[in-house]
């Protein structure tokens, strides 16, 4: 699988490959289909760029400058690991032929460093601090495509969608928040054809992982950041933000902390009981006893009148929901570790579980990205998702549909559903993910 992220296989001639890809690029712009020697991930990126109406002769726009750029650098988490980037990639920058750059999660360049001569050359395509290099703004490029896919990638010469960038070759890797798994940005090296090697891709990937490890080791400023892990777990893990081990919560306590984290202004006893027990006839004493036991675990973090958490507790659900809302599906899919507290039958938890699953699932079906869909259907919670398998089969070229086709036939047989005659197949009657949220 590593090979698909590499621009050139061993022994390939860079000049010959660049010419072949350039011809394929021009053919694509003329409306022809994309085939060999263009990598599938590049063809997909070209299509995304075309759908975003990126002009092939454009240069990147500049979103941040002067005081705004300086403030964003100071506030951005990757500023804390910039010395590490310089230490690990400084040798490449100092050779006078390459650039080191770091962008934020929206593809805006925070730093572009290297020899003055090569920086001046890069300025011709607006490869400067403050410029925006996400795919919808600058087409196929290493930092933008790494952010779009959530994976380290090389982009070689004419694989770039925009012509002003095609003299360059780049290798980039996304950097994630080690606690929430949210994409913080990407680290990138830019230069000539020599970068189209396994070494450069492995180097930026290792640098990104080292940055994540350093971020994890840094003590947060101010109050500890608390995180509640509830995805794919029967009982939650509550991280205090300090060095001690996380607190493991039982099912009922997990439900209560999740509900209170979702309602930072607090819940009355009656409302909390309704979210936990629904219409069941449960004595108020039962809830008070649960909260008393939970207070013994949380201490001053749990307050009453109304019941609330005295400090912000972020959940891994927040990461998924925010990424879906921002259209960052690779991050959302990476952060989604499974259904939220799957054993819980508390109405408030069930409602949140369904809304989160359905939001992510619907976004994946709408995007129709074969790699993301393939990741989804290979999980325990997606392996029986008939609609996702149908979307995957439809997103793949005909010669690659054998596996999803066989799985579709097996699922339709199991559900007693005939193959669709039109473009849309019936949904399975007992589906978990498509169900509407509980009111």
UniProtKB/TrEMBL annotation:
Residues 415-439 are annotated as: Disordered. InterPro entries: GAF, GAF-like_dom_sf. It holds the Pfam family GAF. Residues 109-214 form the GAF domain. Gene3D superfamilies: 3.30.450.40. This is Transcriptional regulator. The lineage of its organism: Bacteria, Bacillati, Actinomycetota, Actinomycetes, Kitasatosporales.
């Amino acid at each position: 699988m590593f090979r698909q992220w590499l621009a050139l296989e061993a022994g390939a001639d860079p000049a010959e490959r660049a010419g072949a890809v350039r011809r394929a690029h021009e053919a694509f712009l003329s409306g022809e289909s994309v085939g060999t020697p263009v990598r599938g991930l590049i063809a997909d990126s070209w299509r995304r760029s075309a759908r975003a109406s990126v002009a092939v002769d454009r240069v990147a726009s500049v979103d941040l400058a002067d005081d705004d750029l300086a403030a964003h650098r100071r506030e951005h988490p990757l500023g804390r690991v910039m010395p590490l980037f310089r230490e690990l990639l400084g040798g490449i920058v100092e050779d006078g032929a390459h650039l080191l750059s770091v962008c934020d999660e929206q593809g805006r360049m925070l730093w572009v460093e290297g020899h003055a001569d090569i920086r001046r050359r890069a300025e011709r395509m607006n490869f400067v601090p403050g410029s925006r290099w996400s795919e919808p703004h600058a087409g196929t490029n290493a930092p933008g495509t790494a952010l779009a896919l959530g994976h380290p990638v090389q982009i070689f010469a004419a694989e770039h969608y925009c012509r002003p960038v095609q003299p360059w070759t780049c290798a980039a890797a996304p950097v994630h928040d080690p606690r929430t798994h949210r994409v913080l940005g990407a680290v990138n090296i830019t230069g000539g054809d020599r970068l189209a090697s396994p070494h450069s891709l492995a180097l930026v990937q290792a640098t990104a992982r080292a940055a994540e490890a350093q971020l994890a080791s840094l003590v947060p400023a101010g109050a500890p950041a608390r995180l509640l892990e509830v995805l794919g777990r029967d009982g939650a893990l509550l991280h205090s933000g300090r060095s001690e081990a996380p607190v493991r919560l039982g099912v009922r306590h997990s439900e209560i902390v999740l509900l209170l984290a979702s309602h930072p202004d607090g819940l009355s006893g009656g409302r909390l009981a309704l979210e936990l027990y629904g219409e069941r006839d449960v004595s108020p004493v039962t809830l008070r006893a649960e909260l008393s036991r939970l207070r013994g675990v949380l201490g001053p973090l749990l307050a009453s009148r109304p019941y609330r958490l005295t400090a912000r507790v972020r959940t891994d659900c927040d990461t998924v929901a925010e990424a879906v809302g921002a259209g960052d599906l690779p991050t959302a899919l990476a952060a989604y570790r499974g259904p939220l507290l799957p054993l819980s039958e508390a109405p408030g938890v069930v409602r949140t579980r369904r809304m989160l699953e359905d939001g992510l699932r619907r976004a994946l079906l709408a995007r129709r990205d074969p790699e993301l869909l393939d990741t989804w259907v290979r999980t325990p919670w997606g392996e029986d998702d008939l609609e996702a398998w149908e979307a995957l089969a439809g997103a793949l070229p005909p010669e690659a549909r054998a596996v999803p086709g066989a799985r579709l036939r097996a699922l339709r047989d199991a559900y007693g559903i005939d193959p669709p005659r039109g473009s849309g197949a019936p949904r399975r009657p007992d589906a978990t993910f498509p169900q509407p949220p509980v009111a």
